[in-house]
Design brief:
The structure is a single chain. With 264 residues, the chain is of the alpha/beta class. The protein has 2 domains: 2-122 and 236-262, NAD(P)-binding Rossmann-like Domain (Rossmann fold, 3-Layer(aba) Sandwich); 128-233, 2-Layer Sandwich (Dihydrodipicolinate Reductase, domain 2). It contains 8 helices and 12 strands. Helix 1 links the parallel strand 1 and strand 2. Helix 4 runs parallel beside helix 5 (103-116). The chain is elongated, with a radius of gyration of 19 Å. The chain starts with a strand and ends in a 6-residue tail after the last strand.
Length: 264
């Protein structure tokens, strides 16, 4: 039985993780951490009935007390890196769903995991459909000279572009280092009109709007044709199979990985 602690347990994603772990036959929820509702029962907040697990405010103290095998973190971009370090240094395996981590931070966490002889996982997106969308985009990038990414999220998302968009551009650039071939010299009359430029000279456009949850469209163009690859998340439950997959991966493996695509 895999012992799981959820960090950010009172958030929308955190509550879904609590439910998913509670329902999994091979896992048991042993702890919950958040900056709100400290001292309250996480069961009454996320499950509709008390389960005896009190929400704690200090991640390290919680890990030391309940000794989880895995800690799932869905918190904030400004705390995800430190949380992952805390988890590894305390002897647990991190599964990080919080986006916004920098490349150098990811590399530092990989090195720390090797030093601690612990596996771990960071996934910009735990939705299997979104990961397949990224993999299909990488396949298509071989055959097109131009591509751009448009990502759509709710207006409470704090980081832009999304981790999914960044990861998609990285995958596409591996097979095609320049996806802006043939464009004329451009001048922005309003700064930022063409979005941000990521790996492979791919322009990423971030939309933040009430009504969206998480969507992404990858557009490819060549002479006489347009290809669009799109994924839409409409319910946070769609992330849970991937989260459970991540928990099982880090329990059974030693390697620290970035992206659910590595285990699909």
């Amino acid at each position: 039985m895999v012992k799981v602690l959820v960090s950010g347990a009172c958030g929308k994603m955190g509550r879904e993780v609590v439910n998913a772990v509670n329902a999994a036959e091979d896992m048991t929820l042993v702890g919950a951490v958040d900056i709100v509702n400290i001292g309250e029962d996480i069961g009454s907040i996320a499950l509709g009935k008390e389960n005896g697990i009190k929400i704690q405010g200090d991640l390290k103290l919680a890990i030391d007390e309940v000794k989880p095998d895995v800690v799932v973190d869905f918190t904030q971009p400004n705390s995800a890196f430190q949380n992952a370090k805390t988890i590894l240094e305390a002897g647990a395996r991190p599964v990080i769903g919080t986006t916004g981590l920098k490349e150098e931070e990811i590399e530092e966490l990989k090195k720390l995991s090797e030093k601690m002889n612990l596996s771990g996982m960071i996934a910009p997106n735990f939705t299997t459909g979104a990961v397949l969308m990224m993999m299909f985009a990488q396949m298509a990038a071989k055959y097109f000279d131009n591509a751009e990414i448009i990502e759509y999220h709710h207006n409470q998302k704090k980081d832009a572009p999304s981790g999914t968009a960044v990861k998609t551009a990285q995958l596409m650039a591996k097979v095609n280092p320049d996806l802006m071939k043939g464009n004329c010299q451009e001048t922005e009359t309003i700064q930022g009109s063409r979005g941000g430029t990521a790996n492979g000279n791919i322009h990423i456009h971030s939309v933040r709007m009430p009504g969206y949850m998480a969507s992404q469209e990858v557009l490819f163009g060549s002479m006489g044709q347009i290809l669009s690859i799109r994924h839409d998340s409409v319910d946070r439950k769609c992330y849970m199979p991937g989260v459970l997959m991540g928990i099982r991966y880090v329990t059974d493996n030693k390697k620290f990985i970035y992206g659910l695509d590595n285990i699909l």
